[in-house]
TrEMBL record:
PANTHER family attached to this UniProt entry: DISULFIDE-BOND OXIDOREDUCTASE YGHU, GLUTATHIONE S-TRANSFERASE-RELATED
SUPFAM superfamilies named in the record: GST C-terminal domain-like, Thioredoxin-like
Domain GST C-terminal as annotated: residue spans: 132-261
InterPro entries: Glutathione-S-Trfase_C-like (IPR010987), Glutathione-S-Trfase_C_sf (IPR036282), Glutathione_S-Trfase (IPR040079), Glutathione_S-Trfase_N (IPR004045), Thioredoxin-like_sf (IPR036249)
Pfam families referenced in this protein's UniProt entry, alphabetically: GST_C_2, GST_N
Domain GST N-terminal per the UniProt entry, residue ranges: 42-129
Keywords: Oxidoreductase
EC assignment: 1.8.4.-
CDD domains: GST_N_Ure2p_like
Native source organism of the sequence: Vagococcus luciliae
Protein name: Disulfide-bond oxidoreductase YghU
Transmembrane segments: none
Length: 261
C-alpha cells in the first residue's frame, strides 16, 4: 500500500536548470546551432527503436539503388539534453527524436515523428508504401497501430520493468499484460501472411520490427525476452529473424552518427 495522497493541484517538485531531464514545460532551453551537411536529407536522431526506423528505411532505399536518398546523420544525445536546443526545437517543437530536414525542397521541409518521416520518405520515393488503396490502407493501419501501441511497451513496460528505481507489481503486471497482448496480436496476424500488412515488405514492418522485433530479440531491456516468454510467439519470431537478416536492416542498426559539436 502507498501513503501517497492526491493533491488538488499537482506541483512538480524537481525543478532544475539542467539542459536535460524531463520538465512539465515545452520549448528550447539553450541556444544551439546544428550542423548542416550537403546530403539532401539531414537527420538528427539516436539509435533508439524510434530512431532506427528512419535509418533502416534510408538504407532500404539505398539497397534498391534509389537516387536522391543520401542523408547526413547527426547524433542527438537525449541524455545530455541535445533535443532541447533551439535549432532542434525549431524542427521538432516536441523535442523528441528523430527529426529530419529535406533540404532538396525550396523552402526546406521539416519533418518530425518517426511515423511521419516514414510516410514522407515512402511517398517521396514511391517505395515500401503500396499505391493500391487496399494495401496502402492496411499498411497505414499497422503503421499507426505501432505509433499508438509503442508507448505501452516503451514508456509502460520498459520503464517499469527496466528503468524505474524500484520494482512495483501493479504497473509491471499492467504493462506486461498489455505488451503480451500486443505480441499475441502480431503473432496471430503473421500466421497467414508473410509481412505485417500482407505479402509485401512495407514501412509497417520497419516501424513494428524496430520495437517488437528488437524486443523479441532481447535487444531492448535485459531479461525481458525471457520474462515475456517470447519463444511462444513462433510466427512473430520467424518474421523477426527474417527481417533481422536483411542487409539494409543490419546497416540501419550499425550506421555511424556524426557529432553535433
Amino acid at each position: 500500500m502507498t501513503d501517497y495522497q492526491l493533491p488538488k493541484i499537482w506541483q512538480w517538485d524537481d525543478e532544475n536548470t539542467n539542459r536535460g531531464g524531463n520538465r512539465p514545460t515545452a520549448g528550447s532551453r539553450f541556444d544551439q546551432t546544428l550542423p548542416i551537411g550537403t546530403a539532401p536529407f539531414q537527420v538528427y536522431s539516436l539509435g533508439t527503436p524510434n530512431g532506427v526506423k528512419v535509418t533502416i528505411l534510408f538504407e532500404e532505399l539505398k539497397e534498391l539503388g534509389v537516387t536522391g536518398a543520401d542523408y547526413d546523420l547527426y547524433k542527438i544525445n537525449i541524455g545530455e539534453g541535445d533535443q532541447f536546443g533551439s535549432d532542434f526545437v525549431s524542427i521538432n517543437p516536441n523535442s523528441k527524436i528523430p527529426a529530419m530536414v529535406d533540404q532538396s525542397q525550396t523552402p526546406r521541409v521539416d519533418v518530425f515523428e518517426s511515423g511521419s518521416i516514414l510516410v514522407y520518405l515512402a511517398e517521396k520515393f514511391g517505395k515500401f508504401l503500396p499505391s493500391n488503396i487496399h494495401e496502402k490502407t492496411e499498411t497505414l493501419n499497422w503503421l499507426f497501430w505501432q505509433v499508438g501501441a509503442g508507448p505501452f511497451v516503451g514508456g509502460g513496460f520498459g520503464h517499469f520493468f527496466h528503468y524505474a528505481p524500484e520494482k512495483l507489481k501493479y504497473p509491471i503486471d499492467r504493462y506486461t499484460m498489455e505488451t503480451k497482448r500486443q505480441l499475441d496480436l502480431l503473432d496471430k496476424v503473421l500466421a497467414d501472411r508473410s509481412y505485417i500488412a500482407g505479402e509485401n515488405y512495407t514501412i509497417a514492418d520497419i516501424a513494428i520490427w524496430s520495437w517488437y522485433g528488437q524486443l523479441v530479440l532481447g535487444n531492448l531491456y535485459e531479461g525481458s525476452a525471457e520474462f515475456l516468454d517470447v519463444s511462444s510467439y513462433t510466427n512473430l519470431i520467424e518474421w523477426t529473424n527474417r527481417i533481422a537478416e536483411r542487409p539494409a536492416v543490419k546497416r540501419g542498426l550499425a550506421v555511424d552518427y556524426l557529432s553535433i559539436d
